[in-house]
Amino acid sequence: MIKKLGVALSVIGLSACTVGPDYRPPAALPDGSTTLIETDANSNIVMAELPAKWWQLFADPTLDRLVEKALRNNTDLRIAAANLQRSRALLAEAGAGRLPVTTASASGVRQRTTSSSSASGSPTGGTSPVTLDYFSVGFDASYEVDLFGGVSRSIEAANADSQAAQATLDAARVSVAAETARAYTLVCSFAVQAQVATDTTQLQQKTLDLTERLLSGGRANRRDVDRAILLLEQTRAQVPEFEAERRAALYALAVLTGDPPANADAEAAACGELPEIEAAIPVGNGRDLLARRPDVRQAERQLAADVARIGVATAQLYPSISLLGGVSLGATGIGDVPKGDSFGYSIGPLISWNFPFNNAARSKVKQSEAVADGSLAQFDKTILNALQETEQALARLTGAIGRERSLDKAVSASESAAHISRLRYDYGADSLFQLLDSEKERAQSRAAAAAAGANRLAAQISLFKALGGGWQNSPPVNEIQVGRD
C-alpha cells in the first residue's frame, strides 16, 4: 500500500504545474523619455552621481547630526519598520505551506453508560451502569500537495509584499531626511529674516530719532515724524512673526527627530545663517533617478505581488490533494497503552475540488486580474510622477536661484541709494521725504532678499527629496517593542 502511494505521489510531483501568469517586469521607458531636460537650464546642476547622504553637501555638522537622529528615532520610520517585520512574518507563514501540518494529542476519558439487563427469575428487565476508561496518544500529519502551484504563488506574492514593505520603509527614510533638513533650514531662514528685520528696525529708529529732533528744531513737521514711525513699526511688526515661525519650525524639528517639543535641539535653535552648498548640485540622470527612488521600487514589487495572486486565485479552480496520516496508541488501561496491540494507524489522500463552473472562484480570478491591472497603472503613474516631480523641482530651483541673484543686486543698489540719500539730506540737497522713501526701499529689498534665500534653500531640499536619495546606508531604526525588551 505504502509503495503504491509513493509511486502515485511521484507521478503527481512530475505532473505538477503552476497556474496563473508568470510575472515579467514592465518594459523600461525609451532613453529619450527619461532625459532630465531642466538640467540644461541650470548651471548649478551637474550630472554626477547623487551622494547617498546628500545633506552632507551643506557641510553643516548640526544638520548631519539631526538627520542621522531622525533616521533612527522618527515615529513614522518606526511604523514602517514594524510593517516590514509584519510582512516578513507573513512570508514565513506562507513558506510554512510547503511543510506538513502535524498535531500531537493525548487524552484520558472515563465514560459511564447504562445497559439493559434481565435479572434471573425476574419478569421485568432492568438497567445497570457501565463505566469505561480509555487512554490514547496520537500523532497526525497532513500535507497539501502543491499540484497547481497555489502555495508557490502565495509564497511568491508574500515575498514581493515583503520587498514592497522594505521599499516603503526606504521611501519613508527619503521623506524623513528631507523634512528634517527642511525644518532645520526653516529655523535658520526665519532667524535670518528676523535678524534682517531687526537690523532694519535699528536703522529706521535712527531716522525717527533724527526726524523728531528736526521737529523740535522747527525743520520738520508732524507728518514727517508719523511717516518715520509708520516705516519703523511696519518693519518691527515682522520680527515677532519671524520669531514665532522660527520656534514653530524648531518644534517640528524636535518631533521629526523623535523628541517632544519641550526638548527642542539647542544647537538648531542657535542657527543664525543659511546653510549653503558651495559646489554644483549632483543629480545624476533619469534612469538613475528611477532606479533610486523607493516609491518606484515599491510600486513594481506591489505589481509583482498582485500578479502572483492571480495564480493563487486560479489554483482554487483545480482539485486540492492532501495526504493524511496518523498513528495512535489506545487502550482501556493506562498501563496497556504502550503494548503492541494498542497500535493503530491511518493513511491516505484527501481530494477536494471547487469545480471550474463555481462562479465565486471564477469571480475571484477576475478580481485578482483587475487588481493587477490597477497596480500596473499605479506603477506607470509612479514613474511619470517621479519624472514630473524632479523636473518641477529643477525648474523651481532655477527660478529661485535667478530671483535670489537679482534681489541680492537690488539690496546692493538700495543700500547705496539710501547712503547717498542720507548724505544729500545732511547737506540739504534731498528732502526728508526722499530720505524716508530710500529707507523704505532698502527695507523692502533686504526683506525680499532674505525671503528669496529661504525659498532657494527650500527649493534645494525639494529637489533632493524628488531625487529619492537618503535611504542608502541608513542607520537601523530604533524599534521599541510592546512589553518586550
Tell me briefly what this model is.
Helix content is about 60%, strand content about 15%. It is built from eleven helices and six strands.
Number of strands: 6
Give the end-to-end Cα distance, rounded to a whole number of Å.
Answer: 53 Å
What radius of gyration results from the CA coordinates? 39 Å
Spatially, the strands of the biggest sheet line up as: 2-3-5-6
**Residue ranges: pLDDT <50 for 5 or more in a row?**
7-15
Order of helices and strands: HEHHEEHHHHEHHEEHH
Number of helices: 11
Shape: elongated
Can you put this structure into words, describing what you see?
The chain has 485 residues and is α+β, with helices and mostly antiparallel strands. Helix content is 59%, strand content 13%. The protein has a four-stranded antiparallel β-sheet. β2 (101-118) and β3 form a beta hairpin. α3 (75-95) packs antiparallel against α4 (150-216). The model is unreliable at 7-15 (pLDDT under 50).
Features:
alpha+beta; 485 residues; 6 strands
Question: Can you lay out the helices and strands and say which pair or pack?
Answer:
Layout: H1 2-15, E1 45-46, H2 61-73, H3 75-95, E2 101-118, E3 125-145, H4 150-216, H5 222-236, H6 238-256, H7 266-269, E4 281-282, H8 286-292, H9 294-315, E5 320-331, E6 343-352, H10 359-426, H11 432-467
Parallel strand pairs: 1-4
Antiparallel strand pairs: 2-3, 3-5, 5-6
